[in-house]
Amino acid sequence: MKKDLTVRVERMVREWVAGGSFGPGEEIPFDRGAAEKLGIGCSALRKNLAKLASEGVLQVQENHYYLLPEKASEAAPHQEPEQWRIHGERSVYANRWINLCLVDVEPPGMPRFEHHVIRMQRVAITAVLDQLDRVLMLWRYRFVLDQWGWELPGGIVEAEEDAATCASREVEEETGWRPGPMHHAVTFQPMVGMVDSPHEVFVARDAEYVGEPTDAEEAGVVEWIPLADIPSLMKDGKLMGSGTFVALLHLLVNQKDYPWRAK
Asked: What gap in Å lies between CA 247 and CA 227, rounded to an integer?
């Protein structure tokens, strides 16, 4: 229902703009009458107008006047939206692993408010392949989800440690295999709306078995899983963690491009 209202508001305003109902610089009405006509609350109408303002369709002045741009070229739909203003940040709870913050933000055309943000440390994840195109994985239980699943080895990048060193160390500690040279694949953020947690994904080959895993907390069943089986494991919900998904999808798409791939 909310989505339908949003579409109706955007369609109405865009028709005003395209049809010349309002000249350049004229105020777009967002009074109670317009809201009632659309069957939407005044605050919801303002919110949708703010979205159009962020796209450059409208202009905003003093947070409550939505005006057509003086020049039609300024309303080009491909323009970059205006960024949110950040006025400050305060920590609510913090420890070694997590920092819960309230960030004072001001979206374009909207009142300021405090947005919850979780800041976490950088993480490194590694997909290690062998000569049979099997990937080194761990079968683990995660109590938060009350679920078993396959994961790639990885962990927090410690202070004064580079991501590649962490990736190699975590593989050895969690699996007992020492990987060959690390190849950086991609850096990504798993939950950009509320969480800041940079993830570094690496791929490696030519692992050497050096002994039993030494990280008891991250213990799991260590196995080499055929890369060809990964799509079915995804479909069956047997993979866990965004890092695992991103790394394996990267391998499935790009594996033939790596110069160290077995011939």
From this structure: 12
